Amino acid sequence: MALKKSELYSSLWASCDELRGGMDASQYKDYVLVFLFIKYISDKYADQKYAPITIPKGASFADMVALKGKPDIGDQINKKVIGPLAKENKLSDMPDFDDSAKLGSGKEKVDRLTNLIAIFENPALDFSKNRADGDDILGDAYEYLMRHFATESGKSKGQFYTPAEVSRIMAQILNIANAKVTTDTTVYDPTCGSGSLLLKVGEAAKIKPTLYGQEKDSATSSLARMNMFLHNNPTALITQGNTIADPKFLNGNNLKQFDYIVANPPFSDKRWSTGIDPSSDPFGRFATFGIPPAKQGDYAYLLHIVRSLKSTGIGACILPHGVLFRGNAEGDIRKNLITKNGCYIKGIIGLPANLFYGTGIPACIIVIDKKEAFARKGIFMIDASQGYMKDGPKNRLRDQDIHKIVDIFNNQIEFPKYSRFVPLSEIEKNDYNLNLPRYIDSQVTEDQQDIEAHLKGGIPKADIDALAKYWDICPKIKTSLFKEIRPGYFKLTVDKSEIKSAIFGHHEFKNFIASMNSHFEEWKIKTAKALKKLEVHFHPKDEIKKLSEDLLLHYENKPLIDAYDIYQHLMNYWATTLSDDFYLISADGWKANTYRIMEKDKKGKEKDKGWTCDLIPKNLIIAKYFSNEQANMDKVNANLELLTSQITEMEEEHGGEEGAFSELEKVNKANATARLKEIAKDKSAKEEAEILKKYIALCEEESELKKQVKELETALDEKTLNQYPKLKETDIKNLVVDDKWMATLDKDIHGELDRVSQTLTSRIKELAERYDSALPDLLKDVSLFELKVNKHLEKMGFLWN
């Protein structure tokens, strides 16, 4: 049976547990990824005659397995595996597997490395048939590991990784997926880190382009080379060196030029000019547009990109927001990029703060496009700073945020408070300051207070009209809820507590809900039919892309519903459940396999924790085939809860110092029975005895019901387990697609409709309460209260003037 992706991730992350303690994440990531690399190339290229990587004899993963438990395991891994691999494939700065300071000494080191090897022996980690179409489990597992490494590394050491969500945006706004790409098409990252951004762009293309990357840090550049192999890009060219001082990709004495360039350079690099004289740069990077400040290297990297792009090239670079508005030398460079040789800047995308692992400051993506520079009449700007979710200590872009940015940028759609095509004439008037707030007001409109409404009462017409999107769909609800009391001001026709029921009960709203339900039903029927046709070895990522795009399109321009919110519900479900289900079906077909849940206790002994089925949970089988048995058990459970409540009430009622249970050391059936025997012949304790008898009887009844519930649970569990082998493929498809997937999405999308009605209800109630009491009424109330207080004071002998 296929292993769930989520379990695979957990298994890989468990390998990190073996290394924690002796080093931080920025260090143990190197050990884990080297293991992953060796396992991958051993599975993928072992014994291949013309393999793109050389695996010396004795340096495969199988040879590492043979070292398990040996007292000199660390030294042997270095000498027999790591050393030869590094030498043959020009890999430098490989981690030391015999480092006692990091891995421990003696038995601790032996056990740690042995356990690490054992984790990678998992049969699910068989990469011999790894697909190269971006749908392989390895790629996702790598992203999972890199995100966790970057999160745990902290501010100072998390810069080796560009968040996958940002990489996806950059890959898609370059529009490489729709370009005529061949193997001669070139993609370059001058500050490639571990290669994640470069790889994302390569994966977006229909045909693999040739990838080029340069990284200053030696260990990270080796990691990038390994990652190219891990993602089936063995021909990628990764070099080590300082891109500004010593660029490695040259065409004679000039910089090599590329079709596409992406970069996430170090923010505000204060040492960018070390090793060069910018005024006489041999590659002419600063001659046309200007020299960046000595202590502010952001534009040095951007100008390197500009110089390295072909005349038809397009690039995207992540930089801090300061590059958009800082003056002096940077202001001159910014102006020159817009006015000299046409306008090189095609677009700017402002991102939320705290996205990146090396810094918490907000950043932007600057898109450079040389091809249409002279024809360009303006710059397309997006302020996406408000679209994100919290993810632990960092912010994170959701699928809907990514999709919205890409859709709006690629289609140049102007959206209020979000995006604008800003004419060059307007930018010139602002002295070429590109700070986004100058052009896009993304702030939430402040709620206005109406002074007349506070003085005289009534809800202002302007506030009611601001809810126009609701009245456009349900105009009669508006007239049924509000009545004009004077020109421009209205009062509610229903009590505030009845607003929700008035909206829900109105025939217009009922018709709206019915139409939206019908709209989803239409998509559900069509989609369920298609999903039931999925066969073994389908590509889950292709399927979810098709599914999600279809859902987004289905809800496009629907009233009161944001199509991207609907899309996000599907993507959330993909992340939690649908992904595992798709991969299980892709691997095994429509099979509902049950298995035992075995857990190890502290002593390492396995315990049976019951059984489960990943594809079809127990509750679906019970609801479909054993609803009567479940209803009967629910009834007994309800009786048990009622009885338990009665027992609790008795314990509280008679548990005081003078209560019937005051003599009991602990209130339970055993102690109550013992106490009853003690006072059996004591006539003065007759009342206490009656209470104890009633309590004991309730405890016995509770015990009997618990036994009954246990028997019913066991019987239902057995019936449920026995039902799985009886399921036909059609039954499995109906249960999974209709009762699991579609039922969940139906519930989530209904939640969006509830949110619509709740938002309208809350706003109307807020307005009603705000202007409920006019100032004269409040003054009258104050006067009455003052009169009452004065009377009380007078009675107490005080005179208040």
Automatic annotation (TrEMBL):
InterPro entries according to UniProt: D12N6_MeTrfase_N, DNA_Adenine_Mtase, DNA_methylase_A-5, DNA_methylase_N6_adenine_CS, Restrct_endonuc_T1M, SAM-dependent_MTases_sf, T1MK-like_N_sf
UniProt keyword S-adenosyl-L-methionine present: yes
Domain N6 adenine-specific DNA methyltransferase N-terminal, chain residue ranges per copy: 10-120
Top-level EC class: transferase
Biological processes per GO annotation: DNA restriction-modification system; methylation
The reaction(s) this protein catalyses: a 2'-deoxyadenosine in DNA + S-adenosyl-L-methionine = an N(6)-methyl-2'-deoxyadenosine in DNA + S-adenosyl-L-homocysteine + H(+)
Keywords tagged on the record: Coiled coil, Methyltransferase, Restriction system, S-adenosyl-L-methionine, Transferase
MF terms (GO), sorted A to Z: DNA binding; N-methyltransferase activity; site-specific DNA-methyltransferase (adenine-specific) activity
The EC number(s) this enzyme carries: 2.1.1.72
DNA methylase adenine-specific domain: residues covered: 135-447
Family matches, as SUPFAM superfamilies: S-adenosyl-L-methionine-dependent methyltransferases
Coiled-coil stretches: 626-653, 695-722
Keyword set includes Transport: no
NCBIfam families linked: hsdM
Record family assignment: Belongs to the N(4)/N(6)-methyltransferase family.
Name this protein carries in UniProt: site-specific DNA-methyltransferase (adenine-specific)
